[in-house]
Amino acid sequence: MDKAPPIPGTPASTPASGLPTQILPVSQLLAKRRSGLRFTPDADQRRAVAEVLGLLELRVFRFDAEVEPQGRDLVLTGRLVAQAVQACIVTLAPVPARIDQPVQRRYIANWKDPEGDEAEIPEDDTIEPMPLSIDLAGVAIEALALALPEYPRAKGAELGAQEFPPPDAAEGPETLKPLAGLAAMLAKKASDS
Question: Could you say which of 56, 66, 90, 151 would form a disulfide bridge with 157 (CB–CB 3.0 to 4.6 Å)?
């Protein structure tokens, strides 16, 4: 990817939500042939992102991108690099995750929402309606959330197998229906009063 000079825009800031933002007006992006962009949050901003995403730590978080007009549309192409630490779903031990992946978004000027009761979701999940501004930090945080392992496991951690009695087991229905005794208790209480 050729590096274009960065465009002036709102520097990364942290609003009341605690998450960093880096707002880029679409009008400025459309006026240039190509715009080079970078989002690299500081330590406090990384901590805020880690908290929202349920991470133990977010050591590295960088998003380099280019935005290029295509007619009245915009195409954002970038690379997300991150080093995060998640809790193992079995043991809660720290599990490191390294992410290095491409990210693409297409912002469509003539976007039309699907109509009808049974509107189909488009297959291309990179297409979005053209906003007035693009939050580069928001794009990076969303890409990170989607790239993180859903069920991180520490090395050697395994979920134990659950064993259930077969349906024709000799045990009575009260064993298979733990709340079955509740009806009897309520009936006894009603008869006592």
Answer: 90
- pLDDT tens digits for range 159-193: 666 666 666 655 555 555 666 667 777 877 788 76
End-to-end Cα, the chain, rounded Å: 81
Residue 98's domain comprises: 23-112+119-147
Q: Say if 93 falls within a structural domain.
A: yes
User: What is d(CA 106, CA 123) in angstroms, rounded to the nearest whole number?
Assistant: 13
Distance, in Å, from the CA atom of 4 to the CA atom of 38, rounded to the nearest integer, reads 11
| Residues whose CB is less than 8 angstroms from the CB of residue 123 and which lie 6 or more positions away in sequence, other chains included | none
- Is residue 10, in this structure, part of any structural domain at all? no
The total number of structural domains that make up the chain: 1
Residue 187 in any domain: the answer is no
Does residue 97 lie in a domain region? yes
Report pLDDT digits (tens) over 27-80. 888 888 888 999 999 999 999 999 999 999 999 999 999 999 998 999 999 999
